[in-house]
């Protein structure tokens, strides 16, 4: 017999909104008193200019060093940063946002052509059934795995519009360039050889794209768009729209991530916390619901290739600074397993 969670996940949240349905009990996740305490303040997340980290002739050594220190500080304190001058035009960012919105604006019958099963990850729908005690999220999403070698969508549906496919493939290529630039800059900020993080991820490092749609909610004070969790990936690249909703937990308080049209939010996952031996933190985050506003975002997860042994980088451990984490062979506690549990499960790799 299907559980209530499975029954609800077989429906689309967007369809429930269209039908005027109230959120059922498994969507109710917090006390009204929390929302009554007022809105969360904006997080002062540092903005990093990737152009200043490119070591070009137009950038002085002093400018580069200053920006590298700013980057290191951001990742030590917030576990994320807002990246600008990343090489992707604002016009193209608007285009990928529009393509995302257009997918979710299609008739329900059309979107259901791409539906996934309750226990599947790829496709259109909600997330797989969470572990017992975890609530459901007020959102729908489209999740796709991107081929690690030729940068094409490895598993796609032939019915999908050609424009969607082309824009996504173009965006994937640009994400590859961003991950190369960001990984090198992060390594340099730690005083390490610039390719060491890229080498740790491997040539077969995977990219997975998740298009998120958060419909309006009649009870935003008690229903969340996305449960509190930490990503189990290497790091995540998030493109937000103009509607605020993403929040980060800092010192037991929730802070709202500002929306910057031209910026990409780079957010560390647990595997980066392991690689940096706890120097950088993988932040717990969530998404709040809105009564009158829809929200979309696009998250690209960057993960080391399968069967890679993940552990603290050699340049960060010595007799004075011993490893805080064991090396984990075949680190396959995936982002989704972490997410289903809620909060974080980093203790699995601790010494």
Question: Please, could you describe this protein's structure?
Answer:
29% of the residues lie in helices and 19% in strands. The longest helix has 28 residues, at 162-189. The protein has 351 residues and is an alpha+beta fold. Helix 4 crosses helix 7 (162-189). It is globular and about 60 Å long. It has an eight-stranded mixed β-sheet. It is built from ten helices and twelve strands. Residues 150-158 and 338-343 have low confidence and may be disordered. It has one domain: Sandwich (Jelly Rolls), CATH 2.60.120.
> Could you tell me how far the N terminus lies from the C terminus, measured between alpha carbons in angstroms?
41 Å
* Shape by Cα distribution: globular
Number of helices: 10
Beta-strand portion reads 15-25%
Annotation, overall tally of beta strands = 12
Low-confidence stretches: 150-158, 338-343
The CATH first-level class comes to Mainly Beta
Fourth-tier CATH superfamily name: B-lactam Antibiotic, Isopenicillin N Synthase, Chain
Question: Within the largest sheet, what's the order of strands?
Answer: 1-2-10-7-12-5-4-3
Rg measurement, Å: 20 Å
Structural class: alpha+beta
Mean pLDDT: 85
Keywords: Iron, Metal-binding, Oxidoreductase
Domain Fe2OG dioxygenase: 205-304
GO molecular function: metal ion binding; oxidoreductase activity
Organism: Hibiscus syriacus (Rose of Sharon)
